[in-house]
What does this fold into?
Amino acid sequence: MFLHRPAAAAERLNEVRTLRLRRHDADDLVLVRADQVEREAIVVDFTAGLLAGLVRTGSLEAVRRVLVEALPWVTFLPEADVDELLAELITVAQGAASVENLAPIATLLGQWRHAAEIYSDPALLEIINREPEGDLGAVDPPEERPGHPRETD
It folds into this structure.
């Protein structure tokens, strides 16, 4: 529809929230009106600020309880990790909202979910925490990056 009748596709956005363009050779694309993206960015910015305010005012225990409802896998994280997750979530959510890109929030939540998956499986946790056996071999020195000279002894 989009390629053959782009005006009709654009008109359809007045009736639906998004249009999904299914592609056979690549990931699907989604069309959305710019004003909708702007409204969603406002909501994310508000939510990030609200979360930061709740944590800052000492309502950390209430935030922890609600976090488990929103992200049930948080149950498997150690308490210190939950605090770290909250701190990172606030920082990343505020930054993501400021650049109108929610991908960093999704990435962060995915990373923490993987950590919870490890904590939920005692066998996997033991494997991850096991000290490696033997010499792992030589390590190449880090490459020098422009503007970041390598430290020398």
About this structure: The chain is about 55% helix and 5% strand. The first strand starts at residue 18 and ends at 21.
